[in-house]
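Researcher: Go.
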Amino acid sequence: MTGPHAAGPVALVTGAAGGIGAAIVAHLGQQAYRVVATDLHAPAAPHAARAAALDVTDARRVEELVDEIERTLGPIDALVNAAGILRPGALTTYSDEDWARTFAVNTTGPFLTGRAVGRRMAPRGRGAIVTVTSNAAHVARAGMGAYAASKAATAHLTRCLGLELAPHGVRCNTVSPGSTDTRMGRQLWTEAHGADAVIRGSLDAYRPGIPLGRIAQPQDVAGVVAFLLSDAARHVTLQDVVVDGGATLGA
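Model: Structure:
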């Protein structure tokens, strides 16, 4: 949340080591947030007030870090769940370990952080939570079933959390990127034979192209996240904003 604040609002961002998470940290830092940037290993984050190691699947560590942040920096005003993994593969041959790990990071992680931060925000009567999901939560993706299912579950988890926290003045929204110029995104471009192929789409893969004719940059997503955290979005909750250049055709 932006607005009058003596030392700048405190934001906790997961998955901050690169890609969309790093762009969110930079964007919020430039807006005078005091950002705690986290990843499995403390990330290099010049725009952050602090960097810390956080495994979002470790409930005890999540609680410890949230307690520490609130004790040393002050109340957490904003939580951004940007941590996520993608392990492609056909569902009929997908391993138990890949399935469990995908849901642990992509769905259990936002549950644990949302629980820890949300229950502290509620008594204060303010706060905003934004979770980065995916446009794959809206449409089926061949070879991405576990990822798509985990992101769809997380989107609905966030709506349910938002419904519970709304009476306390806490807002919860999701942002669903499409193809974005990140390490994860480039992994998929290789499989699709390049970014141009992703933009054009593929009937064989049941995948539409991108009407705007470009791959998103992480900053495109970060700007939408920052808006949803801000007072300009003070009456926006339980919503999903799709940032994919029209690839899901409004789905």
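Model: The beta strands are 10-13, 34-39, 50-53, 76-81, 128-132, 171-177, 240-243.
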